[in-house]
Amino acid sequence: MHRLTSKLIIYRNIGRDSILFELSEICKAFNKGVYDPEEITSEIYEQIHNLLDISTKYGFDGNLWHNYLAFLLATTENPFTLVSEKVGAKPGSVTAFAKGDFAVFRQLFDYDFESIEKKLGINCFTTIQNYSAVVKKERIYNKSVSDKVRLLSREIEEAKDAEEIYNVVTDFYRQYGVGSIGLNKAFRLNTGNSGSAGATVNAAAAETSGAESGEQASLLTPVTTTGDMVLEDLIGYEVQKKLLRQNTEAFVSGKTANNVLLFGDAGTGKSTCVKAILNEYYDRGLRMIEVYKHEFRYLQRIISEVKNRNYRFIIFMDDLSFEEFEIEYKYLKAVIEGGLEVKPDNVLIYATSNRQHLIRETWTDRSDISRDELHRSDTVQEKLSLSGRFGLNIGFLKPNPREFFGIVKGLAEKYPQIELSEEELRLRANAWQMKHGDLSGRTARQFINNLLGSCGEPGRSMPDDL
Predict the structure, then answer these.
(1) Which of 182, 285, 308, 419 maximizes the CB count within 10 A of its CB?
(2) For 364-383, how does the pLDDT look when each residue is reduced to its tens digit (9 = 90+)?
(3) pTM here?
(4) How far out from the chain centre does Cα 373 lie?
(5) Which CATH superfamily is domain 226-396 in?
(6) Structure confidence at residue 460 (pLDDT)
């Protein structure tokens, strides 16, 4: 194996601490006969353990060794893979090097571990090449990456030679992309200092990044479970959904589009709309990056990281608002409009807020007389200028009682196990919202969740009491 990996040129930036190169060093020592059987067996088990970790995270099954090698090809970012992502297979001198690497991967796919197993009395390689994974729920593993990698693995298995593998892999890059950004839908920041935003770097980056390259680690870590909602799942708000879809359609089509502020009452579906847009346009190259206001100082770095990629990025800021003493909005203003560096065409900002003007205003803002400031109106204008930099403002208001029941009825129709009459459904919905919340889509959803939890076996009637 070491003889093979030493021939890699294009994919030489795969991390030296990756499973592939660690196993390569183990095989080198084994072939030389310079090893302690117990130590080398322990080293092999360590790499098998790492392989099982990755396989569990991405839901791999069958031949885990093939899945892993396909995973490396799908997640390794280098000049060749990034160009292939944009244009697919193109003639050039680099093609010869790429086909040489794919010939190596062909041999790695077919690598025979039998002699190692016999000599050491182990069978772990046989097991991982005929692996039957425990069935898992989609929320437990990264299904978006899993499906694509396993597809690539199967196509490489069926390829006859390096030429066919070259076509398979470059077509994969062109269709699905490369690396974490290409294969995932959504991302949060990995700043290493807070909660989910400080999560450890994902396995793909750890496996494929060359420590010797000196490149700065990615700020982005994937969100692996984004749900499958689409705009039709949000009942009502047809005008608002149409405006959002039209703007996003223009954006992914390469036309001029606006930054969007979705404002209005709580629980009316603002965030749901943005998440649904991602699911509807992901296949057309849309990606989403969720950023919290305490992370705004990283906005320029985020944009620098994604501006040259072959995707369209929405920077999503949920539940955005600022108190008087908070100044993070200045970072946002500079990014949207007014900074020296122009925001690239493949980046837009979508924000949701309960406040149309985003920044808290007080009664003293209405007067030009202030104990602390001579020209208070200038401060007011500075505050209002933030919301004014969103070219499209879409308002979401609470539904009236008739609209609220329309939402309840529409949600109930999706679940045949809810067998209440329309009148009984109305009475219970009204009682629920008076006791548990106000008129909103969120309250309607919570009411339906309560009914579903009370259903018992599918097909049985609802219990009389809620």
Answers:
(1) 182
(2) 555 555 555 544 555 555 55
(3) 0.77
(4) 45
(5) P-loop containing nucleotide triphosphate hydrolases (3.40.50.300)
(6) 38
